[in-house]
Write a structure and sequence with these properties.
Elements (H helix, E strand, L loop, with lengths): L1 E5 L10 H15 L3 E7 L9 E2 L2 E6 L8 H13 L6 E5 L8 H5 L3 E5 L12 H14 L5 E4 L2 H11 L4 E2 L14 H5 L7 E4 L8 H11 L6 E4 L6 H11 L4 E5 L3 H10 L2 E4 L8 H8 L4 E4 L2 H7 L4 E3 L4 H12 L8 H12 L2 H15 L1
Parallel strand pairs: 1-2, 1-5, 2-4, 5-6, 6-7, 7-8, 9-10, 9-12, 10-11, 12-13, 13-14
Antiparallel strand pairs: 3-4
Length: 365
């Protein structure tokens, strides 16, 4: 098949979950003989890069605007993709639902991955929340199929709109971790640091984790906050100010082998997100066999089940106690890593995820 993936910032992944998803899915589809093109944004991907691990890349201009970046670039991508006559176009993000009918007018099938309930993100003002609510409603009619990455999101569309969606989760890889120099570069010791990975935006609650860490009085084991965000400068400045009060390292975004090595050697991994569907960073931490603590949301509980600790990050005292208990090395936590890897192998393997997308695309085409 000839397949296009539209609506992400592009690959190689250097931003967030959608980009990781686009990369992992596209390279596997290409390895199976499909012709796959991933559209990327010139602010994130080198315009001279034409291919990545067998996947064709099409890098188009974007705009530096929180409200226009996604829809402007996806509009350009759709117009560019139509004359290339793809059999299936996978569109990411419910904000792009208003575009899904256009390829269909030219005989090309569209599938829309709606992600989470994006209008709940605190970064959006009234206009942004209304636009995402409109996107949810348009998603019911504009694409050929809606894809939800979590059962919680599938249930949301069914209960709120009476609309069935195709549930296909994200995935993670259980392969061995290659050694890099990232621990030495950051001054870290294996098994002696706490790790948080996410976009540093308010709804991902890095500030709650940071405050609980500081309240715990823990000094000998550092907290490493990995991530960044283009439109949350004020929030990140607040985090850096707080970080100056303790043993906190904020090196910015880290990807590739360095990122996976950090996951594999941390004392504990924290996932604080409260908006979105299945989070690839959480899956990757579980695949690395990390001890995991997640903020108490239906989506996070669905993924983790009994393979880690679920708690409210708003319970500062409770989270501080968990941090101290884990770093004290209690034997009750030893089985979590193997449980996490077993859940990834059973439910969130990338090859199995690719099987489901390939089946869906075949049905559409």
């Amino acid at each position: 098949m000839k397949i296009a993936i539209i609506g992400t910032r592009g690959i190689p992944a250097n931003y967030g979950g959608f980009e990781t998803f686009a990369q992992e899915l596209s390279i596997r589809l290409a390895a199976r003989g499909h012709e796959v093109c991933v559209y990327g944004r010139s602010r994130y991907i080198d315009r001279n890069l034409e291919e990545f691990q067998g996947v064709k890349l099409q890098v188009l201009p974007s705009v530096s605007s929180k409200y226009l970046d996604t829809v402007f670039h996806t509009s350009l991508s759709v117009l560019h993709a139509i004359p290339r006559k793809h059999e299936v176009i996978l569109v990411c993000n419910a904000a792009n639902a208003f575009l899904c009918w256009i390829p269909r007018m030219f005989g090309q099938k569209t599938a829309l991955n709606v992600d989470g309930i994006e209008r709940m993100r605190r970064k959006w003002g009234l206009a942004g929340r209304l636009f995402y609510r409109l996107g949810e409603r348009l998603a019911l009619v504009t694409p050929n199929r809606i894809i939800s990455d979590a059962e919680v999101i599938r249930d949301y569309y069914l209960s709120r709109y009476g609309k069935e969606t195709c549930f296909i989760p994200y995935g993670a890889s259980l392969g061995g971790i290659k050694r890099s120099c990232v621990l030495d570069r950051l001054g870290l010791q294996s098994g002696k640091y706490l790790l948080y990975v996410s976009r540093l935006e308010p709804e991902n609650n890095a500030d709650l984790l940071l405050r609980s860490y500081l309240d715990s009085g823990l000094e000998e084991i550092p907290l490493v906050l990995i991530g960044g965000a283009p439109y949350a400068e004020e929030y990140q400045a607040e985090l850096k100010k707080l970080a100056g009060r303790g043993n906190v390292i904020m090196p910015g975004p880290i990807y590739g082998e360095d990122y996976h090595e950090l996951l594999a050697h941390c004392t504990c991994y924290f996932q604080g997100s409260e908006v979105g569907g299945t989070h690839p960073a959480l899956l990757e931490a579980m695949a690395a066999g990390a001890m995991v603590v997640v903020h108490d949301t239906p989506e996070n509980r669905e993924v983790l089940d009994d393979a880690g600790i679920v708690c409210s990050f708003y319970d500062q005292a409770g989270l501080s106690k968990i941090i101290l208990d884990i770093t004290a090395g209690g034997s009750q936590y030893e089985e979590y890593g193997e449980k996490a890897r077993a859940r990834i192998e059973k439910f969130y393997d990338w090859d199995k995820v690719t099987d489901q997308y390939e089946k869906l695309f075949n049905e559409l085409a």
